[in-house]
Amino acid sequence: MQESRIQGSKAPFDFSQLLDTEPIIYQHLRNQGVYRILSFLLNCPALAAYRDRNDPILSPPPPVHLLPCGPEHIIKQFILRTADIDEASYEGNEKVLAEWQRQLKIDTLAEMKKTSTNRLIPIVGDQLTVDHLRGLAKYRHDDINSYERLDWITTVNGWFHIEIAFASSLHKQHLGTSGGISLHKAFDVLQRKGLMSTQVKGPFWHHLDEALTHVAEAHFRALWVLVGKAKTIGDLARKTPMELLLLAEDIYDQYACRRALSMMQLRREEDEVKYQSILFNADVLLYLDLRDATRTGDVGRIEDLVPTLLLRFAGGGNSKYMIEMLELVQGLRCEWPESVKDIIRTHCWLINRTGRRDGFVPTDRAQEQNIKDLKVTYHSFGPGATLTYLTKISPAVPVLREVKKHIKWQLETLLTRGDRHSSPNKEKDVEKYANVVLNERWFAYEKNRRLKKPGDCAKDVISEGMTALFQDKAIERWWKGRSFARSTQEKWLDEA
């Protein structure tokens, strides 16, 4: 790892290669987009009785790099004892590293030496955590041994927080006003409260994720009626599987990808409403692809989306997550040996606590769930609810979860109770908003059609991301801040 890092850190990856999407990656993204458009139709109640839904032509595309699942792949969690440490600072992060090494009993001098030369420990966290750890490693880059330089740590940004950043970016980009065709209008029509401004705490991301999915489905349901030349969505049940697949491909190529935007510009079609509607489709499909890839454990699809995420965060003004994507590309393309790349992809991005194919969650989301269980689900009340008691019971959380499952299994009367809140009436909302899209002819070309307010024109953050990275020299600034020679010496004071 040290040798590979030294060689790979001599120069940054040629990020200009990201401008030309590799044909195989483009095909992966297109296949997933077409299948998702098909799924919106086949999951519609009006096609519930479609007799050819199991036709191989309508099958999902093959995975790119699918993680294994099943009972033998259920992870085992070993939760460390809670410690009273504020990790908002560099000093706090140093104390956390020292504390968990103490709990794992790898804090003796002999174990430190072993860690210095024979261990590599990936640490997954949110953006602030990995940024602080990288900052510590930079500050200590010239220390006397690998242990002090933190060479044994590989930082991994959690994909749950990246999903949240992606959704927030879409919200910022496409919010607009109530009088346009934006998310603001959708929230008003569907009466989704609390979504007009982004929030960090509470269920905001859950509600936004749900709203984005419903609005996207409404867009594509309207397109099925328009492109399929049908009076109602149910009329498409008369189509053969091949006809549906070809229609889905037409919808993607003409109304849901960046090439469709380029074609509008080449044809000089001046219709802001149609252009903005296609832009939203192209953006939201990639978000839904990321959400599905993390849920099903396809780390190959996640990796395919990294260049798009880099451009989005650069163009959307999210410089911190732009740096995280730059660091990830640099690691995957230049600095990490193949063995480390495999460890990061297969063991650090996602975990599965159920064994089900759709049971994968980002590692940092699993940790957020652990925190919820510690603070809420299994929190003690009364005079005994002290930090000392919390520290005592924290390692037992996985066992407490299994006890809860066992009791629910034994007591049949509890099986009827759900674990999740019910969602809004999805079908009613999707149908309602699809009718708005159709009635206002968002996807039908009308020459010189303009949006009423400038705030309704969403920026093309992908194009702006290219400008920010190369013309505004964001890559050069990032590289200047991380380009330094790390010491390779291995000295210990007891050996002087």
Give an overview of the whole structure.
- The chain is mainly alpha-helical and 496 residues long.
- The chain has one domain (1-419, 426-442, 468-496).
- The protein has 21 helices and 4 strands.
- It has helices spanning 2-8, 23-42, 90-103, 109-118, 127-139, 159-174, 183-189, 204-227, 241-255, 258-266, 272-296, 299-304, 306-315, 319-335, 338-348, 363-377, 387-393, 397-410, 426-439, 461-471, 474-482; strands at 121-125, 153-157, 350-352, 360-362.
- The protein has a two-stranded parallel ribbon with strand order 1-2. Strands 3-4 form a two-stranded antiparallel sheet.
- Helix 13 (306-315) runs antiparallel to helix 14 (319-335) and helix 13 crosses helix 20.
- The mean pLDDT is 91.
Mean pLDDT: 91
The share of residues in extended strands comes to under 5%
The number of helical segments is 21
| Radius of gyration, in angstroms, nearest whole number | 25 Å
Highlighted features:
single chain, 496 residues, mainly alpha, 21 helices, 3% strand
How are the SSEs placed, and which strands pair?
Blueprint (H helix, E strand, L loop, with lengths): L1 H7 L14 H20 L47 H14 L5 H10 L2 E5 L1 H13 L13 E5 L1 H16 L8 H7 L14 H24 L13 H15 L2 H9 L5 H25 L2 H6 L1 H10 L3 H17 L2 H11 L1 E3 L7 E3 H15 L9 H7 L3 H14 L15 H14 L21 H11 L2 H9 L14
Parallel strand pairs: 1-2
Antiparallel strand pairs: 3-4
